[in-house]
Amino acid sequence: MKLFSWNINGLRAVLKKGALQEFIATEQPDILCLQETKAKPGQAEFDLPEYLELWNSAERAGYSGTAIFSKYQPLNTTNGFNETINASYDWSNDQYGGPLNEGRVQTAEFEPFYLVNVYTPNSKRDLSRLNLRETLWDPAFLEYLKQLNRLKPVVVCGDFNAAHTPLDLARPKDNQHNAGFTSEERQGIKNLISSGFIDTFRYFYPSVQRYTWWSHWGKARERNVGWRIDYFFISESLLPHLKKAEIYEHIPGSDHCPVGIELEF
Question: Fewer CB within 10 Å, N or C, the chain?
Fold first, then answer.
């Protein structure tokens, strides 16, 4: 089973470039998770008859959003967190309107695992959303994954908007206090791993420095001055089924590139 995750930075834009169509034709994903779709169903024209389309679009037009395209029919699907998680945290302090309305989490249940697609809120250049990340989003998201994991194994993928270690960005010393590499954001990733979720790319490549996102400025992608902020994590019980984890830097179309894993059951 080939699973891919890709922050496409606008579904309509990546379709106009032909990049998504070419990617699907070449890689033939069984399940494709997208982040930052910036669209609602019907706003983008494409024909993928082999795939079931699952959408979680933001209430705000042209912003955020996630989608899952799957060749497999899920047993169940949900958008967002569950009522228990929603009620356990005070989401009213977010000056940007609240991440629960931004289409950031999807869950599809399949026979062997839950698949969670996430687009984690960015802390913003001025760190004005860092408190949200530290005190609300990251703890709530981890608790949600733990709840699922008590029922069956979990595969979670998406844009986590954080580089975990200095190995995960080209210039760690220059970015120690910048969004995406603050101690608070890195702790969110550490907590995920400490709870038993496996960083699949690091499992195969413990010391390789490769990236999934590059700034538009200064020809960062051409010079490979990037960040690894897109991940696949899996429950430890799925390790015997994990055959491959990869980053697809050569695939254009977005400021992010796809990441993928292969599972065998």
Answer: C
Return the closest-CA partner of residue 185 out of 162, 166, 167, 213. 162
> By C-alpha distance, which of 213, 218, 120 is closest to 169?
213
Q: Is pLDDT at 97 greater than 90 in this prediction? A: no
pLDDT tens-place string over residues 105-154: 999 999 999 999 999 999 999 999 999 999 999 999 999 999 999 999 99
The Cα 197–Cα 191 span in angstroms is 9
Query: Per the residue annotation, which of 51, 114, 119, 231 is the catalytic one?
Result: 119
CA distance 94 to 186: 20
| Rounded distance between C-alpha atoms, residue 144 and residue 218, angstroms | 38
- Per-residue pLDDT tens over the stretch 156-215: 999 999 999 999 999 999 999 999 999 999 999 999 999 999 999 999 999 999 999 999
Closest CA to 106 of 133, 71, 70: 70
Beta-ladder partners of 211: none
Query: Quick check: is 159 catalytic?
Result: yes
Domains, the chain, ordered by start? 2-263 (3.60.10.10)
